[in-house]
Model the fold of this input.
Amino acid sequence: MADIYAYITHTAGVADDSALELVAAAKKIDANAAVTAIVIGSGADVDKVADAVAASYAKVLKFNLDALAYPNAEVVRKLLVNVLSADAIVLVSNDTFGMDLGPGLSIKLDSTFVADVVGIEGVDGTALKVIRQEYSGMVSTHVTADITNGAVINLRPGAFAPDESQSAGGSVEDRSGDAGDLTVKRTFLEVVEAEVGDVDITKSDVLVSVGRGIEDEENIEVAQELADAMGAVVSCSRPIVDAKWLEKSRQVGTSGQTVKPKVYLACGISGSFQHMGGIKGAPFIVAINKNVKAPIFQVADVGIEADILDFLPELTDAIKES
Amino acid sequence: MEILVCVKRVPDTAENEIEVNRDGSDIERDDLVYSVNEWDNYAVEEAILIRDKVGGSVTVITVGDDESEEVLRREMAMGADNGLLLCDDAFEGSDGKGVASLLKAAVDKGKYDLILTGAQADGGAAQVGGMLAAMLDYPYASLVNKIEVDGDTLKVGREIEGGNQEMNAIQLPCVLSIQTGINEPRYVGIRGIRKVASVEIPQQGAADLGVDAASVGADGARVKRLDYFVPEMGEGAEMLEGSTEEIVAKLIELLKAKGGLK
Ligand SMILES: Cc1cc2nc3c(=O)[nH]c(=O)nc-3n(C[C@H](O)[C@H](O)[C@H](O)COP(=O)(O)OP(=O)(O)OC[C@H]3O[C@@H](n4cnc5c(N)ncnc54)[C@H](O)[C@@H]3O)c2cc1C
Ligand SMILES: Nc1ncnc2c1ncn2[C@@H]1O[C@H](COP(=O)(O)O)[C@@H](O)[C@H]1O
Done:
C-alpha cells in the first residue's frame, strides 16, 4: 500500500475539524496505515498546529516559510508535487481550499482524482471503492477508482466520524528546506469579510428558512408573515440570495451563515450538504417540501409533504388564531 | 479578450425528481427535462459582460452527444459568438479527467486568453476546471464570484467559507471556475433562440482533436461509477399525515413543545 498523506487546513494556529476526519478516513482505506500529516504555513502558528496534530498522526511534515504565509492552492500544489512520492494517496478536505487544490494536484501527480467522497468501502487490489452523491444528494453512487498511480481524494467535511481515542504520538519533521521552487502566477491579495446585514439570523432561536421552492420574489412575503406570527426570523438557501431576493447575510450554509437555532423550518429547501453544513447545535428541524424524495426528509425531525405556497398561509392563520 | 466557456447539458434538478432506475444502472431518464448546468449559465453571462467591456469573443464548448447542441444554441442566444461541440462515440463514459483532456485538446487548437467553467455540475465533482488548468499549465482559481480585468492580469474574488471573499491577482491566460451569484444571467426568450436556430455549430471528434480514442471514454476512465442507489439513512423524518387542518394542529403542538412558539 502506498503512503497516505493528509493535508491539514488550519486557521489562527488551530487545525480544522477535518484533521481528525481525514485520519479516520485513511484507516478505512488501510486499517494499518501510518498516516502522515502535512502542515503548511508560516510563523509560530504552524509549529503549534504541527505539534497538535502529531497526537493523531504517525508523522507530521512541517513546512514553515514566509512564502507560505497564505496557503494559496497554486503554491501548495507546487510544494506537494515537489515533496510527495509519485504513488502517494493524498487526502484533502472538500472545503473551498480543497476544491481549489485537489483536481489540479491529481493531474500534476499523474494520479487519480476522487471528488467529494462521503463513504469509503475499502480497497480491492488496486481499486478503491467509495460512495459519492450526485444531483445535489438526490441519489448516491458506488464508485471505483484505480489507485495504481496514487490518488488525490477529496473528502466531504463531516462525513467521517473522527476517532478521538486514537493517539498516534507521531514525530514532527521540519521539511521546510525541501519545499523547492514555489513561484506561481496567482498571488493572494486580501480577504474581504462578508457584509453584515440588518438582521442577524445567527441570533434567532427560530428560523423560517425559504429555498428555491418559494418560486417567486413576491412569495417571500408568505414566509415573512409566518415568521412574524411565530416571532421568528426569515433565513434562506443560496439560490434566494443569488436571485437577489434576500441579502447575503440571510443565507444559511457553508458559504453563508452558521446558525444554531432551537427550531428550523426548512420551506422548499432540498437539503444539500452545503446548506445543512450551516445548521449546528441539532435544532428541531421541520421540512416542508412537495417532493417526498427530497433529501431534507432524511435529516429533518418532522416532515410535511405539501406545497409551501398553500401550507405556510394555513399555518400562519392557525397560529394567529391560537 | 478571447474567452472560452465550458458548458454541460444536465437534468434540471429544479424541474425533475431524480430517481434510480429499476436495476440501479442509471437514473430514470424518461421524461427528464434537461437544461444548461446552473453554474455554467453564470459563467457565460460573465464572459459576455467581459467581452462587451473589453472586446473580443465568447466561444461556448461542450463534450456531449448530438442533443447537447441545444445548450450551445441557448448560450449563443444569450450572446456567445461561437459554439463548438466535441462529440464522438469514443467519448462516452469519460471520467472528469477524460472530459478535461478533450477540452484541453480543443484549447490547444484555438487561442484563448481566459477559460471559464462552472464551479460544479450534476455529478457534484467540481473537478474539470482545475484539471484543465493543470493540463494546460495555466494558473487556476475556483469558486470565483468577482472578476476585474486589469491588462494581462485579472483581479478575482473567490468565495470562501462564511461568504468571505479571497481576493487574488491571476495572470492570463488562466482558468477560472465560476460560482453562482457572480451576476444575474440574462433571460433568453423564444425570439433569441429563433435567431440562432439555423446557425451551423461545428463538431469535432477524436480524429479532429488528435486524441487517442483509447485514452478517453469508458476505456480510459480510472474512475468508474458502478451503480446508483438511495441510501437508508437512519429513520428519517416523522411524516405528518392527515388533512391540512390536522397537520397544522399537530405541527403547532410540536412547535410549542420545542420552543418554536410561545
Ligand atoms: C461551494 C459551494 C457552496 C455552497 N454554499 C451554499 C450555502 O452556503 N447555502 C446553501 O443553501 N447552498 C449552498 N450551495 C448550493 C447548494 O449546493 C444547493 O444548490 C442549494 O442549497 C439548493 O438550494 P435549495 O434547496 O433552495 O434549492 P433546490 O435544491 O432547487 O431545492 C428546492 C426544493 O424545493 C422543493 N419545492 C419546489 N417547489 C415547491 C413548493 N411549491 N412547495 C414545496 N416545496 C417545493 C423541491 O422539491 C426541492 O426539494 C453551495 C454550493 C457550492 C458549490
Ligand atoms: N461534458 C462537459 N463538457 C464541457 N464542460 C464540462 C463538461 N463536464 C463538466 N464541464 C465543465 O466543468 C464544470 C465542473 O463540472 P464537474 O467537474 O463535472 O463538476 C462544469 O460547470 C462545466 O463548466
Q: What stands out?
A: Residues 35 and 243 of chain A are 44 Å apart (CA to CA).
